[in-house]
Write a structure and sequence with these properties.
This protein is an alpha/beta fold. 53% of the residues lie in helices and 12% in strands. It has 39 helices and 30 strands. The chain has a seven-stranded parallel β-sheet, sandwiched between helices. Strands 20, 21, 22, 23, 24, 25 and 26 form a seven-stranded parallel β-sheet that branches. Strands 1-3-2 form a three-stranded antiparallel β-sheet, with helices on one face. Helix 33 packs antiparallel against helix 36.
């Protein structure tokens, strides 16, 4: 039906291509015309475009400027807030106007980039008139030389340590890709279709307004390579380019990189820089300017695979009791696991016996029930997997499982009754049974040691106990709450240890290197350096593997990549495999996926899957196929799903004497070197999943004649796009090639999701061990199983996002307040609300009870004033009248305080300005509320003279607000971490943890805002200058944020250099990158032609 409709109306891909096609002719028309321009005229098109953009935006820029000036002069805070809200609206309107003018410029701008690429392709050198831009670049860029008043751009340069000669010109389908990316969509392009070149088109166009373009890659190698590869094209066109991953966080060089027109970097570094920016104490320390336009390379890897784990900047906590808990509980859990193994083997033996007798039913005492119990006890048991591959056995299990899972697993408790715990392998969940709790409790003095009490019932019993007085009731409640908390944490630790032992396997889900547990990304096969499993699972795995259990840390700042990239005004992405996840991209990011046609027709031979009964047969067939391909002179890329399988295949190839390279999480540092060799005749490369993603495997004419690159998949991955990515390694740009997947019923995907139909058909056809099945129906059935997994994983990611959305709303509100404090322009509005909120809360707390004495004491302790109103006025007047009167008194007191501070400090400041004005820029102001150390507050001397001291109180307000905001936010994040962990126990009470989390998180945030308002109000109102009459005023040093005790969850250490590759005959020399340009002495003339010495010009940087 759908096929017929597609033929009549066309597919979505056809419609997308038709929509963009008319502009291709327009672009090519301009590109042809620009061939007549000189080099200088071509590059000056950039200046022309920028002038046209400036003219288009001039009216709204003037409006925004006038509004900002009006806001600065407006004394009323409420009117000022309205003006700032209007400015925000105008800024959004300005962004829309930018899109309008860029759409008009698109054909001309794309044509400029295409013509520039053409000139670099056909000319070894491009000569033009030297500008300051060229002179600055020529100092560090070897491909730019100065010859008098002329600058010479060569078409050869170094990128990622290798020499390249520019050999690319945009073809028509790449122009479509560029337009898709400019429109804020995802361009799906096949391997070898030139995604890096396509990105130059929208990058140039969107860099013209000067708002910044961020190009995001999956790793630092690609970020550095692409920035160096493409930079000369952009630099010729008067744009600046840099890569943030070359520099340390918050260094001057990284700030400069962000100030470039186009900035490359990894997803992690962009996210972490955003978090660090919201920890700084001065505007000068911020590195990111605006989140305007981002292009994400390998967008499915970044926005789907990496988006599951949040970016976290953390620091130490004072007490870490939970880390030790895992080691204490580990021996007990190991005994539980061993007992469960005994039970699993017992039920498997029983099942074999009963089924052989023909008792295959699912009732008690029949083979189906015993088989199900063995499966629920240990689904990854090798004897069980082997038995399930026999004729008809899997059908017996599936019928039993289907019976007990019907009606929402109503009767599953009967099957699980004799087990100690049950494993849901599909959802990676482990649940302790009542027998398991009894087993763990053996030897404990408290029989309820592992049982979480029903808190509401316990509290009710305490409150209704007539023998307890008020103090005893409070004490009993505290004990009950402490008992509940302790047991919840204990049971959580047990649950995570069970999961570590029963589900997570070494060399598949993680590896242990140098005493550290490192996660292996299931999508890419790369090590996820520095990342840790959440909710204590990583500590449980560390305890299991007998390495040092990591210390508990406290979150200082956190965000998921999903919410980080959703901040951008416009987001686009490119990849070779996004179509299968199109629904998720649209639901979460509102990103449409457009499939770009290939430049040349793909002639790769994608064969139907070969299905075997056992893994042993499958691997033997894989080795035979490798041998056939290598004898034909074809290179072979073998894709695996885990480190363990890649090493197993390596051992089998060694036994057969077949030389090969291995690229997995343990050898990922040699990725570029191994991929460079992978296309040579007869080369065999075993790669975990998509290792080599982002790089092309190029083949020679000799290999093409032999049949091209052979792709062999040893297992179907859970995700279709991972398999498509592996296939896409072959057949680039019309090259020949083939792809073949080998599958067995012992594979994880087939065990979990293969259909009854395949198993039944194979049994009916008399399929025996050693025989292979190959049919399109089988392949489609496997792909349907993959689709089920994708839907399940999407549900998990969406749920994680729902948790983070709660945090995101809070984070945006706090970071907005923080920015107001950091820049100071809107701080007066926020402070006015803080003061008013604190006053209202103070009145409401005591007015209802008429407690004037308590009200008076609170005013003195919080607001720093004694209220000038009598008890009668307080008790008899309306609430709003009391609030208005107290506010009037408070603001009068606060204004007098400000004047007093000016009177004390201005004589010092004027004296310093007159006598030592050239020496000092800022003075330190010791200011404290008397209960804590004085805050490091600095006032600008020049500004204080110009404003007659008005800025002094603003500087104090800014510093106090930042310090208190950061402290309270950090404590709130700790509470949120504890909340997220504690609500998981709600599932034991048949409640949705997410609902509980949302309710409790809202309450916590209300408390945070109240405490923040009160603390800042109290500190400012009660704070005093800590200065004596004869004390010297000292200079304030520039404040820098201290990151020494913080660490990120993805970049704690540098990548470990891998061991020598398996199966290689010799170790090739490591290529070293050296600066081949002439060395410039410090006292030599600067090459930029300024006439100055190098040390006084560009050498001073």
């Amino acid at each position: 039906m759908f096929g017929v409709l597609k033929k009549i109306f066309g597919s979505k891909q056809d419609k997308d291509v038709r929509a963009y096609s008319p502009r291709i002719e327009e672009i090519n028309h301009f590109a042809t015309a620009y061939q007549q321009l000189s080099n200088d005229e071509l590059r000056n098109k950039t200046l022309e475009f920028r002038a046209r953009i400036g003219d288009y935006l001039s009216a709204i820029d003037l409006e925004i400027s006038n509004l900002k000036e009006q806001a600065e002069q407006e004394p009323d805070v409420f009117t000022k807030e309205d003006i700032y809200n209007e400015i925000d609206k105008k800024l959004k309107e300005r962004n829309q106007q930018i899109e309008e003018i860029l759409n008009k410029l698109l054909p001309e701008a794309f044509a400029v980039v295409k013509e520039t690429a053409r000139r670099f392709f056909y000319n070894e050198n491009l000569i033009l008139k030297a500008t300051d831009h060229d002179r600055d670049l020529s100092i560090h860029k070897s491909y730019i030389t100065l010859n008098g008043d002329q600058a010479v751009y060569a078409n050869k340069w170094t990128a990622a340590g290798g020499e390249i000669t520019w050999n690319m010109i945009h073809y028509d389908v790449q122009l479509i890709g560029g337009m898709v990316l400019h429109d804020g969509k995802i361009a799906e392009m096949g391997t070898g279709e030139g995604k890096t070149l396509v990105a130059t088109l929208p990058a140039y166009l969107n860099a013209l307004p000067g708002e910044g373009v961020h190009i995001v890659t999956v790793n630092d190698y690609l970020a550095r390579r692409d920035s160096e590869w493409i930079a000369p094209i952009f630099e010729f066109l008067l744009l600046t380019v840099d890569c943030i991953d070359k520099y340390k966080p918050h260094s001057p060089q990284r700030i400069k990189a962000y100030n470039c027109d186009i900035t490359y970097g990894t997803n992690n570094e962009f996210g972490f820089d955003y978090l660090r920016d919201n920890m700084v104490r001065s505007v000068d320390e911020k590195v990111q300017i605006k989140h305007h336009y981002a292009m994400v390379d390998e967008v499915d890897s970044v926005l789907i695979d990496d988006a599951r784990t949040p970016l976290i900047i953390s620091g130490p906590v004072d007490v870490d009791e939970e880390s030790e808990e895992y080691n204490v509980l580990k021996p007990k859990v190991e005994r539980l696991i061993n007992e469960q193994k005994r039970l699993a083997n017992h039920y498997l033996t029983e099942a074999r016996k009963l089924i052989s007798e023909g008792k295959t039913g699912y009732a008690e005492g029949e083979g189906g029930m015993s088989l199900l119990r063995s499966y629920r006890a240990l689904p990854k048991s090798r004897p069980l997997i082997k038995y399930l591959s026999e004729d008809g056995i899997r059908n017996v299990l599936q019928k039993s499982e289907n019976y007990y899972m019907q009606e929402q697993s109503k009767n599953m408790r009967i099957a699980d009754a004799p087990l100690l715990f049950t494993i849901d392998e599909k959802n990676r969940q482990v649940e302790l049974t009542s027998l398991g709790i009894d087993f763990l409790s053996k030897g404990e003095s408290d029989p309820t040691f592992y049982i979480i009490p029903d808190l509401s019932s316990v509290i009710h019993e305490i409150e209704t106990n007539p023998s307890l007085n008020k103090d005893e009731i409070i004490s009993q409640k505290e004990k009950a709450l402490e008992d509940y908390s302790t047991k919840s944490k204990r049971l959580h630790c047990v649950s995570q240890l069970l999961k570590a032992y029963a589900i997570f396997e070494i060399d598949e889900d993680y590896v242990v290197i140098d005493g550290h547990v490192k996660i292996v990304d299931e999508g890419t096969g790369r090590l996820l350096e520095g990342r840790r499993y959440s909710d204590g699972l990583h500590q449980a795995i560390e305890a299991k593997e007998q390495v040092k259990v990591g210390e508990l840390t406290q979150t200082y700042a956190t965000i998921t990549l999903q919410n980080y990239f959703r901040m951008y005004h416009k987001l686009a992405g490119m990849t070779g495999t996004a179509e299968t996840e199109a629904g998720e991209f649209w639901q979460i990011y509102k990103l449409d996926v457009v499939v770009i046609p290939t430049n040349k027709v793909i002639i790769r031979d994608d064969r139907e899957d070969l299905v075997y009964k056992t893994a042993r047969e499958k691997y033997n067939a894989v080795i035979d196929e490798i041998a056939v391909c290598t004898n034909q002179g074809r290179p072979v890329l073998v894709g695996t799903t885990s480190v363990d399988i890649s090493e197993k295949l390596s051992r089998m190839l060694q036994l057969r004497g077949i030389a090969h390279n291995v690229l997995n999480a343990k050898q990922h540092q040699r990725e570029a070197e191994i991929i460079a060799e992978a296309g040579k005749p007869g080369k065999v490369t075993i790669a975990t999943n998509m290792a080599g993603r982002g790089t092309d495997i190029k083949i020679t004419e000799e290999v093409k004649q032999a049949g091209g690159l052979a792709i062999i998949g040893t297992e179907r991955h859970e995700s279709r796009r991972v398999d498509r990515q592996l296939r896409g390694r072959a057949g680039r740009q019309g090259d020949p090639g083939s792809s073949q997947f080998f599958v067995s019923f012992e594979d994880n995907l087939m065990r979990l999701f293969n259909s009854d139909r395949i198993t039944g058909i194979m049994d009916k056809l008399g399929h025996k061990e050693g025989e292979v099945m190959q049919h399109s129906m089988v392949t489609k059935s496997i792909e349907r199983a993959q689709k089920k997994v994708e839907e399940n994983n999407f549900g998990i990611r969406k749920r994680l996002l729902e948790y983070d959305d709660v945090m995101n709303i809070q984070r945006e509100a706090i970071y907005k307040k923080r920015d107001h404090a950091l820049y100071g322009d809107r701080l007066s509005v926020d402070l006015s609300y803080m003061f008013h909120s604190t006053i209202e809360n103070t009145v409401s707390r005591f007015k209802s009870t008429g407690d004037y004495e308590g009200f008076e004491f609170e005013c003195i302790s919080t607001l720093g004033i004694e209220p000038e109103m009598g008890p009668a006025f307080f008790r008899e007047s309306k609430d709003q009248d009391v609030v208005n009167e107290l506010a009037k008194q408070f603001y009068s007191f606060y204004n007098r305080k400000e004047e007093g501070i000016k009177e004390v400090l201005m004589p010092f400041i004027k004296n310093i300005h007159q006598n030592e004005g050239q020496k000092y820029q800022r003075i330190a102001i010791p200011f404290s509320d008397g209960h804590s150390e004085p805050l490091p507050i600095a006032a600008d001397i020049e500004t204080a003279i110009k404003t007659n001291g008005s800025n002094i109180m603003r500087d104090i307000e800014r510093s106090v607000a930042l310090v208190r905001l950061d402290y309270e936010w950090k404590e709130h994040l700790r509470n949120m971490d504890e909340l997220k962990e504690s609500v998981q126990a709600a599932s034991f009470e048949q409640k949705d943890p997410l609902v509980i989390y949302k309710i409790e998180a809202y309450k916590l945030f209300e408390t945070l805002v109240y405490k923040m308002n009160q603390d800042i109000t109290s500190y400012l109102s009660k704070g005093k200058l800590q200065i004596n009459v004869n004390q010297e005023v000292r200079e304030a040093r520039s404040q820098r944020t201290d990151y020494s005790k913080t660490k990120t969850n993805r970049s704690e250490e540098t990548m470990r250099r891998a061991a020598e590759s398996a199966g290689r005959a010799e170790q090739p020399a490591i290529q070293q990158v050296r600066n081949t340009g002439p060395k410039i002495g410090r006292n030599d003339p600067c090459p930029c032609g300024s006439g100055k010495k190098f040390k006084n010009c560009h050498g001073a940087e």
